[in-house]
Amino acid sequence: MNDELFRGMKPASAPAGLRDRALRAARAAAGRPEGKERAGVGFTRFDLAWVAALLLLLACNLVLSARGRSDLVAAANGKGRAAATRRDREDRQLARELGVSPSLMAAARPPTRPNAGEELRKLLDDPAFERL
Amino acid sequence: MSDEPGAVEFSCAVAAVPPVEAAVGAEPDAGRRAVASLAAAFAALAAGDLDAIEAIYDACAADLFGLALWRTGSREDAADVVQEVFVRLASAPSGLKRVRNPRAYVLAMGHSAAVDVLRRRRLTVEADDSVLEAVRPDPVTVADATRASRLVLGLPAAQREAVYLRHFAGLSFAEIGGVTGVPTFTAASRYRLGIGRLRKLMGVVR
């Protein structure tokens, strides 16, 4: 603390009439409602701005995510539809060439061999196969 | 006596005014009573007792006016700051319930209002009012106070404020930081820079 520096001095005192003036203004202000009550809502301006920003963020998030999902679904549907159409066209052409009904062609399944695994194992174990 | 250009010799013939910290230290009970009384006035105002604002004024107005005067350099602006603070206190008393350090709270409001005044003024007006008075009205001390005022007003506003809060309001650096919204280290730096410059200019040797 610098006792030497301001020796014999004190801060300038307030004007004589300031007490009455400040207290009168304070009493007058006390009659008025507080800021947020005056606005008619239970929020300050900062609260309102914060809530508005949050709602905007939420709305943007919903809009963007909804649009993104629909685009994705549309794209996927488009690709699947194109592939299915191409396959149907090929199937119908093949059915015409073979002279069979297209519905029969669609119902047809490739033949399955129940013991194919066994046959493959035998083939692989065959020494003649190893010599190939 | 300093060799610094612009250094002013001071007679310093009058006994030193005890700083606030020393005064509180000498009478700790009085200091504690004042703090408790201010806290009670804050609580009463928060509860809706408007008469309590007079007790708050009597406890804080001198420090508040001094702070505003040292910050703005204008008695008129400082009076406006004091009035603004008490209007704010009276118009939103419900927020005072949460205040833990009423004196620092009032001074922080004063700092904020003074900064607003300076911003509105846009530094077009020179700060030239006297920020110091002589304790006794002898001509030598009055002249010293006038010269010291001029030197104080030559400091940057933030340094002036830190010097006032430390030296005359008796706040710790942490409290000054809280009042002015800066870290404790910054508050201490401002004080040391300001007081160092004043010491050189006044020719006061440590």
Alpha-carbon Rg of chain A, integer: 44 Å
How far is the N terminus from the C terminus of chain B?
11 Å
Could you report the average pLDDT of chain A, rounded to the nearest whole number? Answer: 74
Please, what is the average pLDDT of chain B? Answer: 80
> Which chains have the largest interface?
A-B, 28 and 56 residues
Number of strands of chain A: 1
Count of β-strands of chain B: 1
Q: What key phrases describe this protein's structure?
A:
heterodimer; A: 132 residues; mainly alpha; 6 helices; 70% helix; 2% strand; B: 206 residues; 67% helix; globular; disordered N terminus
Overview of this structure, please?
The complex is a heterodimer of chains A (132) and B (206). Chain A is an all-alpha fold. Chain A has 6 helices and 1 strand; from the N terminus they run βαααααα. Chain A has helices at residues 18-30, 35-38, 45-98, 102-107, 116-125, 127-131, and one strand at residues 9-11. The mean pLDDT of chain A is 74. Chain B has 206 residues and is mostly helical. Helices cover 67% and strands 1% of the residues of chain B. In chain B, helix 3 crosses helix 5 (102-121), helix 5 packs across helix 8 and helix 7 crosses helix 9. The chains are: A mainly alpha (132), B mainly alpha (206). The A-B interface holds A 1-15, 18-19, 21-23, 25-27, 29-30, 32, 34-35 and B 10, 12-17, 19, 21-22, 50, 53-54, 57, 61-62, 65-66, 69-70, 75, 78-79, 82-83, 86-94, 129-136, 141, 144-145, 148-149, 164, 166-168, 195, 198-199, 202, 204.
